[in-house]
Design brief:
Layout: H1 15-26, H2 30-37, H3 44-57, H4 60-70, H5 80-91
Helix pairs in contact: 1-2, 1-3, 1-5, 2-3, 3-4, 3-5
Length: 95
């Protein structure tokens, strides 16, 4: 008998969902953004957004984890506004 111990849900976050998460981040509402991005543990852009969420939360260690998952270098000088702007450009969403 084969028993699955863990089966994560790995939904892909849509551009609309990422844009919504970014809007929350821009308003400083990292909790609302977290609700959106935590649903996608595979997509590079969602992982990057997840890293930004944890930067805003003040959890740099967790942010580094999500930046690695996103395939991105952790910024030497963290500027959350610049990270949000760069992510918005990457998803092609107007400000």
């Amino acid at each position: 008998m084969h028993i699955k111990l863990f089966e994560p849900t790995m939904s892909r976050t849509s551009t609309e969902d990422l844009s919504s998460a970014l809007a929350h981040l821009e308003r400083g509402d990292w909790r609302a953004a977290h609700e959106i991005v935590q649903r996608d543990e595979e997509g590079a852009l969602a992982c990057w957004a997840h890293g930004i969420v944890h930067l805003m939360e003040g959890d740099a260690s967790n942010a580094r984890y999500w930046y690695r998952r996103a395939g991105r270098s952790f910024p030497a000088q963290v500027r959350i506004d610049a990270e949000i702007k760069a992510l918005r450009a990457a998803i092609g969403s107007p400000a």
